[in-house]
Amino acid sequence: MIKLLLISVFVFAGLGVFSQTTDMGKSDPDAKKILDEVSSKFKSYKSVTANFSLKVENADGKVVGVKSGVVYMEGSKYRVNISGQEIYSDGSNIWTYDKSADEVQLTKFDPSSNTITPQKMFTNFYDKDFLYKLNSTTKVGNKIIQEIELTPIDKTKIFFKVLVSIDKNSKNIVSTKVFEKNGNRYIYNVTDMKTNVNLSNSLFVFNAKNYPNVEVVDLR
Length: 220
Fold this sequence. Notes:
Elements: H1 29-43, E1 47-57, E2 63-74, E3 77-82, E4 85-89, E5 93-98, E6 103-108, H2 118-122, E7 130-140, E8 143-152, E9 159-167, E10 173-180, E11 185-195, E12 215-218
Parallel strand pairs: 6-12
Antiparallel strand pairs: 1-2, 1-11, 2-3, 3-4, 4-5, 5-6, 7-8, 8-9, 9-10, 10-11
C-alpha cells in the first residue's frame, strides 16, 4: 500500500527503539532532542487531520508527478485519501481501495509487525536503523524551521538521505524529502493540520455499500 506518505517511509522500515549502533557512528544529541519533542507532542493529540501534498522529481530536477491527499488519525485508527486510492484501518483490519480497479483488499492489522502506519511516521520515524543530525535552522515566512538529516545505517536501502523539516515552535513536521539513489526525490509537505477534533468511528471503516460494484478481496 502507498502510498500516502508511505513511499517516503521506506525510510522508516525498522521501527525500533531510539538507540544507535556504536560501530556505525553516533547521532547528534541536539537532533535527538528535537525528534523526541516532535514524537511526544504528536502522541499528546487525541486525533489529527492533516492535508498533505506529494511532489516527485526525477534526477534532472524535473517534476514528474504531483498529488494531494488527507490523512485522519485517532489512536491506532487511520484513514488516508490520496488520488485514486483510499486506505482505512479501524485498528484491527486494513482496507486498501483502488479506485481504478474498483477493488478493495482487506487484510488483518498486526501491531507486532513492521507495518508502517501514519502514526509511526509522525512518531517513531527515527530508530536504531538511522543516524541523524541537525543541519540548519532557518526562517520561512513566520516560522522557524529546523532541518534534520537522517541517513540509513543499512547502505543497501534504495534511498541514501531523508530531510525532515520541523516547525520549532509547534514541534510539528512540515515537510519530508526523500532522496533515492537513482536520483528521484519525493517531497511531502503538510499543508494543514488540525488536532483534537471529533472523528466518527465509521470514518475508519470501509463501507462497501457506498461502492455498489466494488470487488472485495479478503486476504485475512
